[in-house]
Amino acid sequence: MQFFFSLLSFVALASAYRVTSPGGSSGWTIAGPNVVTWERVSTDALNFTIVLSNQARTPSYQQVLAALVDGTPGKFIVRPPSTGFPTGTGFQVNLVEDSENLSTIYAQSQQFSIVQATTTTSSSLTATPLTTPAATNTDTNTDLNPTGSLTNTTAPSNGADRISAAGSASLIFGVLAAMVL
């Protein structure tokens, strides 16, 4: 009979959830968002609650991160609380039955660290569009080099206020290249 219960415990253990990240060298940052991934089999519970735990702290630390998480996708993005996550080592993610039963653990991650977020800087380039004054040209003379006096205050329509399609593409490419740098 004792063998039967041992075998039953082994079968239950073999078909349980398994947290694949975070853990080990795959840690979190205080600013997040951070990802929890897991594997499951069809006989596992359909949902669970995600708890961040650290038993190495005094007092021990437990925080419910998400309740009633659907177990079928195998991935959940955890957003940090408004104050961010605490920093340190020895953290674990527990998949538990629900927020009322935190001690019923379906799976537990390996220990991992939570560190300050690294910052990156980027430069940006803002393009300012060129505009031409709105006016009506009543001069029917299309000569680009007129010899008489001009009474019209608008510039002659010589195409200088237009950018060709090739020129537009070059301008856009240049702006995008500057943004990448």
Please describe what this structure looks like:
- The chain is α+β, with helices and mostly antiparallel strands.
- The chain has a domain at 2-115: Immunoglobulin-like.
- The protein contains two helices and nine strands, in the order αβββββββββα.
- The strands form two sheets. Strands 2, 4, 5, 7, 8 and 9 form a six-stranded mixed β-sheet that branches. The protein has a three-stranded antiparallel β-sheet with strand order 1-3-6, with no helix packed on it.
- β4 and β5 (61-70) form a beta hairpin.
Q: Which structural traits does this protein have?
A:
globular; 2 helices; disordered C terminus; disordered N terminus; Immunoglobulin-like; 3-stranded antiparallel β-sheet; 6-stranded mixed β-sheet; alpha+beta
- Poorly predicted spans: 1-13, 121-128, 159-181
Fraction of residues in helices?
A: 10-25%
At CATH level 2, the architecture of the domain at 2-115 is Sandwich
Q: What kind of assembly state do the chains in view correspond to?
A: single chain
Q: Report on the biggest sheet.
A: 6 strands, mixed
Helical run tally: 2
What does the overall shape look like?
A: globular
Signal peptide: 1-16
InterPro entries: GPI-anchor_Adhesion_Reg, Kre9/Knh1-like_N
Biased composition (Polar residues): 148-157
Protein name: Yeast cell wall synthesis Kre9/Knh1-like N-terminal domain-containing protein
Q: What is the secondary structure topology, with strand pairs?
A:
Blueprint: H1 2-14, E1 18-21, E2 28-29, E3 34-39, E4 47-54, E5 61-70, E6 75-78, E7 88-98, E8 101-108, E9 112-115, H2 165-180
Parallel strand pairs: 2-9
Antiparallel strand pairs: 1-3, 3-6, 4-5, 4-7, 7-8, 7-9
